[in-house]
Amino acid sequence: MLGLRQPDLAVCLEKVHKPHNLAAMMRNCDATGVHHLHAIWATKHQIRRGTAVGSQNWLKLHSHKTSADAIGQFKAQGMQLLVTHLSDKAVDFRQVDYTRPTAILFGQERTGASEEAIAAADQEIIIPMLGMVQSLNVSVAGSLILYEAQRQRQQAGLFATPRLDEAECQRILFEGGYPKLAYLCRIKGLDYPHIDDEGQIQADADWWQIMQQDGRVALQEAPQILSGWQRKMLGN
């Protein structure tokens, strides 16, 4: 899965306020190989774990207080910015080249993308509608556009070679596979250990000894459940 991630294809949700839409978009990203999901919001929302189906454990979620912050980051990375917006300048989303470094911005459910985002867009895109309604639900629109991006990138061979750097792969493997141990590392200030090809932790005795110190008390505050062998290693 990590070998298929596309670090130069990002999704940005601009003030999307419905938690289930955020969770559904995370699921879309995970399914299509998108690694970075950006959210612009004044107040963070709780991720609906049932809708996300665990996708939040395998993505990199970036939070921004303003649209300018997110847009500035995309521009600094040399990414083309696509904004979903119904206008005379907009083109069919299938006419865009998604093999380029790309960030796709989806606006708020009711009002759409902000004027600031539209002004910064390299291209406005639309999903053609043949009925009376002018738009689809944001997560549905996201799935259509992301699967077109996936199709183009598959044809271009961009999934053939792993593109996510090893440090990020190791972070995901440890935090996703050992959430409580990752929690302890953070509160104890420990570096994450290496995860081998079998998914096992490679750490010396000193690392485990530090993890065992006051481990029981700290783990009572963590949300996930350790497996039996992990509890044994921590003396819990």
Explain what this protein looks like in three dimensions.
Its EC number is 2.1.1.34. With about 240 residues, this protein is α/β, with parallel strands linked by helices. The chain has two domains: about 1-155, Alpha/beta knot, CATH 3.40.1280.10; about 165-235, no CATH class. Helix content is about 40%, strand content about 15%. The chain is built from ten helices and nine strands. The chain has helices spanning about 20-30, 50, 65-75, 115-120, 140-155, 165-175, 180-190, 205-210, 215-220, 230-235; strands at about 5-15, 35-40, 60-65, 80-85, 90, 100-105, 125, 195, 200. It has a seven-stranded parallel sheet with strand order 3-2-1-6-4-7-5, sandwiched between helices. Strands 8-9 form a two-stranded antiparallel ribbon.
Blueprint of the fold:
Elements: E1 6-14, H1 19-32, E2 34-40, H2 49-52, E3 60-64, H3 67-76, E4 80-84, E5 91-92, E6 102-106, H4 115-120, E7 123-126, H5 138-155, H6 166-177, H7 179-188, E8 194-195, E9 201-202, H8 205-212, H9 215-219, H10 228-233
Parallel strand pairs: 1-2, 1-6, 2-3, 4-6, 4-7, 5-7
Antiparallel strand pairs: 8-9
Helix pairs in contact: 1-5, 6-7
| Major beta-sheet overview | 7 strands, parallel
Distance, first to last CA? 32 Å
> What sort of overall outline do the alpha carbons produce when their principal axes are compared?
elongated
Classify the helix fraction into a percent range. 25-40%
Total discrete domains: 2
Strand order of the largest sheet: 3-2-1-6-4-7-5
Per CATH, what is the topology of the largest domain? Alpha/beta knot
- Strand residue content: 15-25%
Q: Which stretches of 5+ consecutive residues score pLDDT under 50?
A: 222-236
What is the average of the pLDDT values? 86
Q: Helix-strand pattern, N to C?
A: EHEHEHEEEHEHHHEEHHH
Label the structural class. alpha/beta
Helix tally equals: 10
Query: What oligomeric state is this?
Result: single chain
CATH class of the largest domain equals Alpha Beta
In the CATH classification, which architecture of the largest domain applies?
A: 3-Layer(aba) Sandwich
Counted beta strands: 9
Provide the gyration radius in Å: 20 Å
What's the name of the CATH homologous superfamily of the largest domain? Answer: SPOUT methyltransferase, trefoil knot domain
